[in-house]
Amino acid sequence: MPEHVLAELKANDPNHEFRQIAVIDRLGRLAAYSGPKNRGWAGHVTGDGYVAMGNVLAGKPVIDAMAKAYEGAAKLSFERRLLAAIEAGRDAGGQVGNDGHLTERSAALMVYGDYDHAEIDLRVDLHDTAIEELRRAFEEYELYRGYYKERSKNPKDAMPQYAFVQTLKKQEAAQ
Amino acid sequence: MTFSLIGRCKRTGRLGLGITTYSLAVGGRCEGVAANVGVCKTQAFPNRTNDPLGIKLLAQGYLPAHVMEIFAGNDTEHSFRQVAIMDRDGKIAAHTGPGCRGWAGHKEAADCVAFGNGLLGPQVLDGMIAGFLTRPDDALEYRLMRAIEGGRDAGGQGPADAHRTERSAAIKVVDRRDFPMSTSASTCTRRRSKSCGACSRSSSSTRNSIAAGIPIRRRRFRRTFS
Question: CATH class for domain B2-174?
């Protein structure tokens, strides 16, 4: 159980009070912890199947905005809901340190499905506007996703990627 | 089309891969790098289930060559895959299926395998290996970066009249802990690779070995980072 996992992590870690942890299992049971020694404003909010959490933030509105955006995007794909959440957190003020606002320099989106390899695993490691860059990479990757899956399954008949890129460009030009 | 190199630091036992390709987000398809176990990477027309399976088999004590035989028997499209496997002792198996497009091949050298498809030619693999071997005492991250840079500078992807640029790239390195020490597409890894030199003992890696059913082995060499 996630609650019990958290208790085990606490018992196993002399610096537990410095950690911020969220745990969710495949049934949607969840537990979260924002240690009292997290810096700046730190906290979490839980809802149906999700935890939004953060530290060194502008304040509680940041995680509330994340939760609201995630819930509000319920009709979109899971990936888009996660992206909407971090974008909303950014737009609600994001991170604030001692010297004011701290920009997002890295960002990631990771989703697992039925397999033990990631369904999607995108990451921006160093960028002035990491969330925007992650969104750009995601929207581009979405165009390729079906192609990559099909190519792995049926390599014999696969269109060369360069040709696929040309079809994307044609579609874009036609729009 | 892709070129990559899987490698091992003999001094420290650290394992990793460097990879770059015309495809998007290649770093997100590198599950097969596991501390204390080995590296398994499938590319060309990849079978995404290969790499996690390969790591599980290596952790059970299967040799890379035998893992490759299992892949061949377990995949109707094995002839379209390109696979390199290395265990933590540096034992290697590599396969370039005849269905891989363009110039495709693999080449072994000390503690590494360079492999790629849709390349300008074998000089790309030679460039990668030369990059990897240039300064063998450097931290593995730097050696992997030099490998993919060497492959790029040797001509990279596509035939001479249709060069294909590298649109995504990644390096991934694991130490004795069961999480990556460096997973990066664009980040400077210098600080992290230095800091990991400090954590020479790891209780989590011990547990990881036990969980994986393989014997624990102590570090034999003191690590130095240049």
Answer: alpha beta
For residue range A119-158, what is the model confidence (pLDDT) as tens digits?
A: 999 999 999 999 999 999 999 999 999 999 999 999 999 9
Report the chain B residue with the minimal C-alpha distance to residue A121: B28
Of B46, B48, B185, the CB nearest to A125: B185
Which segments of chain A have a pLDDT < 50?
Answer: none
Domain ranges of chain B: 2-174, 182-226
What's the pTM? 0.85
Tell me the shortest Cα–Cα distance from B145 to chain A, in angstroms: 16
- Report the alpha-carbon distance of residue A41 to residue A89 in Å, rounded: 14
Q: Is the pLDDT of residue B128 over 70?
A: yes
Share of chain B above pLDDT 90, in %: 77
The arithmetic mean of pLDDT across residues B153-179, rounded, is: 93
Helix (H) or strand (E) holding B144: helix B140-153
Residues of A in contact with B27 (CB under 8 A): 121, 123
CA distance A62 to A88: 8
